[in-house]
Amino acid sequence: MVSTIGAPGQRMGVLLMRTAAVFACGALLSQTIPAVAAPVNPDDKSIQRAEQEVDSGTATVSALAGELSRSQDEINRLELEIGGLRESVNKALVDLHDAQAAAEQARQSVIAARQQLDGTQDEIDVAQEKLNEISRAAYRNVAKNGAVTAAAGGDSAEDALDRQTYLRTTAQKQRSAIDELDELRTRQANEESALRQAQNLAEEREAAAEQAKLDAERQIRETGEQLQVKSTERDRLAAERDQAQAQLDRSRGQVSQLENQRQEYQEHQAAEAARRTAEAQAAVAAKERGEAEAAATRAAAEAVAAQERADSEEHTPTAPETAEAAEAAAPTPQEAEPESAPTAAVAAAEDAAEQARREAEQAVARETQTEQVRDAAVTAATAAAAALIAQNTAEHTTLDNPYPSGEDAAEVPIAAVQNPVENAVIPEVAPTEDAPTEAVPEAPPEEVVAEDDSLSAGPELVTLESVTEDAQETVDGSREELIELAISRATSQVGVSYAWGGGAANGPTQGIRDGGVADSHGDFNKVGFDCSGLVVYAFSGVGIALPHYTGYQYNHGTKVDPGQMQRGDLIFYGPNGEQHVAIYLGDGMMVEAPQSGSTVQISEVRWSGMSPSVVRLI
Q: Where is the composition biased (Basic and acidic residues) (predicted)?
């Protein structure tokens, strides 16, 4: 069908409709723009007054900021002092547990020394009885031989020889028994001396442990009071700064609001001027539109006439032309033939690809299974190392003595000493000179093997170094792997509450009650970490046992210049690392448990107040 429009009248109507639509659109566009209510226009005095308030607020904040800037060192010092106060309590607790362990070792040494002394006394009793029996046997034999000789009425040379042989043999036995008795009495004297020393040392260590407990209690009490004062001072400075900044923000907001209102008013004035201009232009356009409509009508009539003339010259295609066109459009036999089936080579390639895909999936499954087995082994080794360390570590936050009292109490395991400043074993006792004995007939002495006169009674105190040696046998990996394992343990606790004194080899623990700042944040009711406790937990997983005090942790590992710090190094604060500790992550970041009321978090490294060295444990 060439056209759906038939008669010339119809064409004329369509053209007129189109023309009318065009002019209708123009009419819509030229309608008058409605006016909008004018916004508030603040006067210049209001803006000037607000700007003066901003200037005044800026001056106040600038003055305070300058004061805070000048006292920033003081604020940093307060922060570090607060950390140092908290860690001083950790130190007191570590020293208390070490004193309690040393006292328990001395108590057990007294028990062992008394047992040795009792055993020696038993041996003396046996040796004395043996000597008495030899003496009685000799006396009976001499009396018997004398009576026999007298009854025989003579004294032969053979009897004399027998008596000499018997006396010599008896004298040798007696000398041996006396030497053994002398040796036992000498050992007894040494053991009695060792027992007295062990008892004295046990009393001294028990007194030291009691004093350490009093010191820890006093430290907690005094630290709580000082923390309250210093925290209040720090919070006051921060509150003043924040209040001034808030006032400045409000003033700036008021000026901004007034300026926005002024800008809105000016924009409204410009829009009103544009509206009036548009209305004038619309009036001119309406006049021009009327003239254009008449011209368009005439043009439409001429177009219809031209179209009618063109239609009369057109003709309908003949039948042969239509057949040729249909024949040309028909597809050829070759084009109508379907495509041939896939070749054998294509099928083989697809099979090979499928086989390769299955083999790849199997390889991935095997690798995944291997990775899972490896991860499970690492997890088990980490847990075993941490459990071994926890087993040999005292409960940090308790003040109570975990060991029994009195010599009748049974032996119990002793926790590892966290800061072995001196040899804690019972000292050796100098051997006593042999005690004189009664004169006896001389005889060739038998060789006597001398025994060790040193005191071997009592257990040996275990240190964190020896615990580390045992724990590291359970873990394996390269240096990089161990570092990543320690860091992953620390970062896995991000978001866990800060708890002063909290944290152990196996995870977070309950904090300390101090009657002050920590109590106000509920540390004693929280299960979490403080800074040194987080480090204890992180590195226990790689078999490194550390004391729960930053100052003692600072003395472990290798000290390195802070400019050369690497991922996994410990960053300390304070002259001797006694105020704070964090774990370096790299790229200027560290993970830490900062203070009461916060959580374990990742922070930017703070260089102010940093200790002279960082510590590399791995």
A: 206-224, 231-243, 261-278
